[in-house]
Amino acid sequence: MQGIIEEYWSGVTRRLQIEINVLNSLVEHNGEKGRANEISLAQLLTSLLPSSLGVGTGIIFDRTGQRSAQTDIILFDEAKQPQLLAQTSQLLFPVETAVMAIEVKTTVDSEAINDFKSKKVKLNALQDSRSNTAPPMFVLFGFSVKGATASIVEAIANLPKAERPDLTCIISPGLVGSATSASPYVPELVPLHKTDPDTKEKLSKQWEELPPRIPGGPQVEMSRVIDQVVYPATALQAYGRKHLLGDPARALLLFCELLLADLAGRGITDETWLANYLPSTTKETQVFDY
Predict the structure, then answer these.
(1) Domain carrying residue 109
(2) Domain count along the chain
(3) 160 SS3 class
(4) What tens digit of pLDDT does each residue of 41-64 get?
(5) 216 C-beta neighbours (distance < 10 Å), count
(6) Is residue 197 in some structural domain?
(7) What is the pTM of this model?
């Protein structure tokens, strides 16, 4: 059966997806849709992170005058952020106070990846006045994928190290990856587990999938509804016929666990307790074959 943490997170993800769908149906302008999605994610992070970290948006700069691109979400050290730079809605963050930058994409496609990598290069060029200090992590967070998921994964995996995301999460179909947890770095699918019909326990490395598509047969829906929850399906190859169901809630949970673990690993926050509450099956993922 689901643990308390995972069961709770399923509800959080469902609420987030519903909120995004409603906002996107009400807002016509793409820029406004994107900002609404950023706000939803920022609210989630604010409730997740310790009070010592602030969640803002704006530009990161250094002592030489170099600056990042406009950044959707910035995690910063609340105690170190000079209040003289917080007098307008457009916040400015010295690189010494910035902990993490998050690029939020409503849809992730090749254009979004190219945009991300150019911003990553600008962020990495900032000069921190402290010695031996790594630049802020740069995260790619998307709500959906456009095109073949395996092709998008390949495009991200093939980016040079200086241009690739330090952490990736795409809610639908459910992708997650961390540059610190895999070598070479490749985002992986977070599939929906099969469960034992009697105990309801998750079956390790056994995934729910759609029935095989019949050539010339009727069009098959690329998702399945289980207990009123929609689980998107994706192929592990760009033109694969086998489609696994993704688990967006578990992908978001693993993203948060990886984010907290990185912050703790760099001494920015205390050691995360979340990993201790996640059974081994919760952390299982599936690699793509491209």
Answers:
(1) 8-190+247-267
(2) 1
(3) coil
(4) 888 888 888 888 989 899 999 999
(5) 5
(6) no
(7) 0.86
